[in-house]
């Protein structure tokens, strides 16, 4: 009887160790997958954060604060194909738009971005801080810094 109990105990212990190792491997894989999402912007992924992914934001040349666009609430309202394509695929675009969303001459152009890209920047900078490799970046959008343009 004691020999049988010892065998059951050893089998249970080995099973527990295997489950623990598998869980640790899954955890490592999940963390690696999350880190890979933050290496470069992926327009097909909806990043979690305080900004609505399809909203449009802008900031003036050399400025830090992003403003929610009052002209264009969503990327779909921008008819300039260069701008809307860049915002959908890359998250940012620099240029001038008229009131109808058509492209204008470059001049001193503001930088436009999507809410999804701002969420990406937020996640990326949060991950950097957690790793201790960076302090708060001026590129990181913060909800209280986002105003309304006039």
Residues in helices, as a percent range: 40-55%
| Proportion of residues in extended strands | 5-15%
The beta-strand count equals: 5
Order of SSEs: HEEHEEHE
Using the CA coordinates, give the radius of gyration: 24 Å
Spatial gap, N to C terminus: 83 Å
Structural class by sheet pairing and helices: alpha+beta
Put simply, the count of helices is 3
Biggest β-sheet: strands ordered side by side in the sheet = 3-4-1-2-5
* Shape field: elongated
Largest sheet: 5 strands, mixed
Average pLDDT works out at 78
The oligomeric status of these chains comes to: single chain
- The parts where pLDDT drops under 50 for at least 5 residues are none
Question: What this model shows, in words?
Answer:
This protein has 150 residues and is an alpha+beta fold. 43% of the residues lie in helices and 10% in strands. The protein contains three helices and five strands; from the N terminus they run αββαββαβ. The chain has helices at 2-39, 81-89, 115-131, and strands at residues 56-59, 67-68, 92-94, 111-114, 147-148. Strands 3-4-1-2-5 form a five-stranded mixed beta sheet. The termini are far apart. The relative contact order is 0.16. The mean pLDDT is 78.
